[in-house]
Specification:
mainly alpha; 0% strand
């Protein structure tokens, strides 16, 4: 695999696009037009996800299980990043899939199934955070300072 860094270390990095009509020898690969450097979309996975959602909405529980198996690991990593504890991430993931199951018939395909599931995950995380807001304790700065000064005496 070729080195993708410019030969000139002081040259600015272009995120997502190559420099158009760059003179030879500046370290940038030569392109004739701007083209995004994104990962190619796997259309077969997206279409099979859509088919699985449609089948699950029609009552095929095996299709929903395949959908869960396909997306659970990625969603769990996102949930773990948001909650910071494994049990909370597992609860959040379970609530996400419950929400997805309840709204299967409402999925209209305007976004990918992955995007739809991530948006459900984000909504569930926000709901969870708001539900537990009374459980989180806050302390005033003055109380914290008194605790610190009491420990030093």
């Amino acid at each position: 695999m070729a080195n993708s860094t410019p030969a000139n270390p002081s040259a600015p990095l272009l995120h997502g696009f190559w420099k158009k009509s760059a003179p030879p020898g500046n370290g940038y690969p030569q392109r004739t037009s701007f083209q995004p450097m994104s990962r190619p979309r796997d259309v077969s996975t997206e279409s099979s996800d859509l088919e699985l959602v449609r089948s699950a909405a029609a009552g095929d529980s095996a299709a929903f299980h395949r959908l869960v198996d396909r997306h659970a690991a990625r969603l769990f990593r996102s949930a773990l990043a948001m909650t910071r504890t494994r049990p909370d991430a597992e609860d959040l993931l379970q609530e996400t899939f419950i929400g997805a199951f309840k709204s299967l018939k409402h999925f209209d395909g305007r976004s990918s199934v992955k995007t739809w599931l991530v948006s459900i995950l984000m909504r569930q995380a926000a709901k969870s955070w708001h539900r537990t807001r009374h459980d989180r304790s806050t302390r005033s700065i003055d109380a914290a300072a008194e605790d610190c000064s009491g420990m030093q005496s």
